[in-house]
Give the backbone structure.
Amino acid sequence: MEQKYDFGLVGLGVMGRNFILNVADNGFTAYGNDLDEEKVNALIKEGGDIKKVNATTDVKTFLNALSTPRKIMLLVPAGKAVDSVIEGLLPNLDEGDLIIDGGNSFYTDTDRREAYLSQKGINFFGAGVSGGAEGARKGPSIMPGGNKEAYQHVKPIFEAVSAKYQGEPCVAYLGPKSAGNYVKMVHNGIEYGLMQLTSEIYDVLKKGGDFTNDELHHTFKKWNSDRLQSFLVEITSEIFEKEDDLTNGRLVDMILDKAKQKGTGKWTSQNAMDLGIPVPSIDVAVSMREISALKKERIQADKLYDRPKVAHMDKDKLEKITEEALYFSFIITYAQGLHQLADASKEYGYELNIAEIAKIWRAGCIIRAGLLADITEAFMADDKLPNLLLSPTFVEKVQSTVNSARELVAFGAKNGIPLPGLSNSLTYFDAYTSSRLPLNLIQAQRDYFGSHTYERLDREGIFHTEWE
């Protein structure tokens, strides 16, 4: 009898190849499909045993090799490619088969595809996969959402291949419809914010303290052994050590300061505005990548304007306040992203469990951090918590670090060092914790020029004034 494979995967790029090998390493047989014969042959060669992992360029051969109901994961670029692959599979699928989109698809595309395929008796769900190529091979964080019953077919495989935190798999069914893709989108938005903040701390240490690359390496390595422990802080410490083969200097100093993006941060920011949820630390991280792309204009502008001469701060003091400011702003960024998730859950009917999301982010994913263990506990203690800043657990953490954020923002402003992520985090905190904001004036202005009305502090109702 011809062998049937447990799991199928379309798209054998680096992520796809690593993920399917991960599946095979964890006791499940897997079959891959890609139009590129070189990628197919590379997988077969690396797999080593075609009884465990095999591949083909032919769609019919691929589908005939899978056990039913078929479990097929797509790791192809988001957008039209996903629709194209689905249409190629459809003629040879059977009712009850399952297609899993493992890419960074926009959540409304996932809703559309699920509705389309359900009419044909095919199960479909989106599963965010975070951890990069290494995570795909050794254990990513996986964020699936869609039909709960269909998820049960792939649950044992996902739990086996996912990262583990103290023995717990970093995967969980998150909710119906596009919940998985939506959570992954916000995960990436938080990632944008944390990366921007880390780059700002690097900048101020270098410009305000003359930290060498070796000193930066040791500083970030030390931070990673304490409360700032995280994947991003860890790799940052390693980046400063990397030698450049072309110049014999450090590679980080030779990399062009133009950051690219694939859109998930922008989607997070745009959707937060649609929901009316403030995420300024994420917003400005997206904007800074856009500003960085204006390299020629920045060079021209730099010649036109005088910049302050940067005053230098004592290294020990600077190291202390940057650590505290980074910790503070990390908390604020997570708070904003999780606030967005909580609100989106109500708006879109996702039924998200924020504590569960924090749990599966504790290992495997790009934003994994020691801080997520505390975040998990905060939301387990109060599953209705609207914002992390309202958790008693986090009040002391924020109170003890916010003054360093204030000092660093002031230092940056005075010395012409742009710290938009940090300053936006601080402004968000100050606004969110202010019982009185000057928006009463804005309401008066709106009523003055547009008769938009206003509410009063001293009585119920809607009011309008003839101002002139």
